[in-house]
Specification:
Rossmann fold, seven-stranded mixed β-sheet
Length: 263
């Protein structure tokens, strides 16, 4: 079979369905907005993401799945206009509050989801989607990102398809299939006539920094959903027997970038 004959969009959707995940709703992210806002704007991940961007000649930026402004706000002083797009109203509230606290008057918010009609979303010189691309239809999402970019697109997608260390899955006895990996994105872009640049950013696992079992348990629940009594007991026993740090394996993010093809 020739590569051109492979429908990577359908393969991605089939893989996502087989992973059998319930996507987190907007109100779930609403509940985490304030906590994320307190620690989102300064991190090694942000520095590495921005350090890979070409801002030469750029005046406007669209940040898709912007959260509290993790990528867009650190760049706002260097741009004329930053637009944050998110399906969580509370995340957008934090974005605007953070912008005001920084004295920024060039930041706007759009309350939209990936699946919504983006016809009213303005095209921008740069479009970013940072750790926000666990979407139902990756092919459609990539077309949206590309269509709204005048110059460059920068995005990150999880490597390996799991947001939690497999060792913890084994401890609690969960069989959790991996989500679709970044390689689908590379192949879909190839089919779109785009040849992206690929790099990687490594961060601490999401279990890192939990000060006690309750905090550790809460992070596991965020990743897996509620644990039953037996699962919680196994996790507690493992936590007690395992020396610190209990961060688990680091997370790797594929940094995928491309320049907007000329029409």
């Amino acid at each position: 079979m020739k590569l051109a004959a492979i429908d990577f969009g359908r393969l991605y959707r089939d893989h996502l369905a087989a992973a059998n995940r319930n996507p987190k709703r907007a109100d779930t992210w609403d509940a985490r907005a304030a906590d994320m806002s307190r620690k989102a704007l300064k991190s090694r991940y942000v520095d590495e993401f921005i350090g890979r961007m070409d801002l030469a000649g750029a005046r406007t930026l669209l940040d898709v799945g912007c959260g509290p402004g993790t990528i867009g706000l650190p760049l706002a002083e260097r741009l004329e206009r930053v637009i944050g797009l998110d399906f969580s109203r509370k995340m957008l509230d934090e974005l605007l509050a953070n912008a005001a606290a920084l004295g920024l008057d060039n930041v706007e918010a759009l309350h939209l989801a990936w699946e919504d009609d983006w016809s009213a979303v303005p095209a921008c010189d740069i479009v970013v989607a940072s750790r926000s691309t666990t979407v139902e239809d990756m092919e459609a999402a990539l077309h949206k990102l590309n269509d709204k970019a005048n110059r460059h697109v920068y995005m990150t997608h999880l490597v390996g398809g799991r947001f939690i260390d497999p060792a913890v899955l084994e401890v609690v006895g969960r069989d959790l299939p991996a989500l679709p990996d970044y390689i689908y994105i590379v192949n879909l872009l190839y089919r779109m006539g785009i040849h992206p640049r690929l790099d990687y950013i490594e961060t601490e696992g999401r279990l890192a920094g939990a000060g006690d079992f309750d905090a550790f348990h809460a992070r596991v629940v965020w990743a897996l959903g509620e644990l039953d009594a037996d699962e919680t007991a196994r996790l507690r026993d493992w936590y007690a027997r395992t020396p610190s740090p209990r961060a688990g394996a680091p997370m790797r993010w594929a940094f995928i970038a491309w320049d907007k093809p000329a029409d």
